[in-house]
Hints:
By secondary structure, the chain is mainly α. The chain has helices at about 5-40, 45-75, 90-100, 105-110, 115-135. The radius of gyration is 25 Å and the shape is extended.
Amino acid sequence: MGAPVGKRGTFSAPVFDIFMGLLTGLAGPMIFLSVAGGIYNIGDIATLGKIGKRMTGRFLWMTLVLTAVFGMVTLPFFPLAHRGGSAFRLSELLEMVLGIVPDNFFTPFTEGNPLQIIYCSWRVSVPLFLSLSLASGSWHRSRASCNKKDRSFRWCGCSYLP
């Protein structure tokens, strides 16, 4: 006969916790590096803006469509009659949306929260992308658009061309 359920449960619970901890510990940095590397390797600010707008639009459109479809499918199982349940509170919705922003940089990695990891990678990679594109000169404008009196041309992002 096999081991009793209680003894097997006491053995498998720590092994499961260790395995999930290792999996979470590996997945967090992989998510962070893949999102940060993807944003950094786009290469052009116009492309970054176009892709960002397209992805945001697709996400919002798919969320709206899928919410409507699944709402209609599940409506017969969950009638809308108010039975003294909890009412909608805007503060709960705001708390859920602001839950994406972590308290500090390391919390998402220790807790294994992928949305917060994606937010952190976005907050790190976009300023890095912008600063490196400024340093490499991809934001230079024409000389005619700069103020001729200001010879430093730093404030408008133009390169100094004598």
